[in-house]
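Hi F.,

I've been meaning to write this up properly since the lab meeting, where we talked about keeping a consistent format for the predictions we share between groups. The idea is simple: the sequence comes first, exactly as it goes in, then the structure tokens exactly as they come out, then a line or two of notes. No screenshots and no reformatting. I'm using this chain as the first example so we have something concrete to point to.
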Amino acid sequence: MDNKSTAGETVNAKFIARYTLIVVGVLITVAFLFFIREALLIAFAGVIFAVIISGFAGIIRRFIPISRGWSIGAVGVIMLLLISSFGFLFGSQIVEEVDQLSQKLPEQISQLRATISEWPLGAELMGDTAQESEETEEQDDSNDDANGSGSGLPSGAGGMAFQAGITIIDILATFGLILITGIYFVINPEIYKKGVGLLFPQKRAERITEAMDTCGNALWSWLSGQFIAMAFVGVIVTVGLMIIGVPLALVLGIIAGISEFIPIVGPWIGAVPGILFAFSVDFNTGLYTSVLYLVVQQIESNVLTPLIQQRMVHIPPALVILSVVAFGLLFGIAGIILATPLAVIAMVLIGMFYVEDVLGKKVNIPGQENDKKI
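Output, unedited:
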């Protein structure tokens, strides 16, 4: 009896020690991944770029029987030609309009604040801000008088310019890393798939590879639909603003199209500059512009998106909202921008590894019906 009791205690001790180590290992892994979350986001953005290149290369191979390497090279050449042609045709106009946008947008915001301050509730809302602004201006004026400076530059302008320069450099460096990472991913994706498969037992390696291929197909399916929506919004808004007579119509249309990539808040962000500039013309122009943005968004969300989702990836709206909140809290602004593609990956992995493998249920998984690799 004592021997059995001792053996049982030994087994229990080994069992507890084993699972304690597993839990500790999982916690350490999660902490490490959270510590390098910015690098992981850059890698994921690189994967998205690689999926885009591979997807367009797959379209070329459907019509022209060439190898994958040549099709990827063709996509690169086509992209360079398109960017160069667009820059040649509209580059000077875009640069000029962006310069005007950077100058006029602060003025429009100041006018909006002044208008809100004239409202009964707006005066209370903007009172503290206006008072602080006046105190800051008076302090800056007194400092300028004491120093005898007549340059007209606001106090701290050098520091603000330096900070803006650092921010631009940081953004450009991040985009450069994303492009380089994506290029390496797209050139030889199999080596990275095999590398991930080596981290798992042999019987699970094939399933892991299948999951990565499915994730790639699902991402390309979602991106295809997103590109259609972005192009629709950008073109319609640009043409509509030109007809209405809003300044900087081309840049404002590009902003509206690009902002469609950001879920939930993107369309609102893209509409704000256009509406502000429209009201700077006159009230009727601002009203027509507001109606334009509203109609375009209603068509995109209620007509175009459902049609796209019949053939592309369907993501429930509640899941999009939750993903924006969750990934925004974890990763900040970058998490909000990449929330929807991250949700697509989560849908694939949960569907394959939990619903199918653990629960043994059949479920429609995005990208799984696409047997052909991108």
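Notes:
The radius of gyration is 27 Å.
The longest helix spans residues 68-118.

If this format works for you, I'll send the rest the same way.

G.
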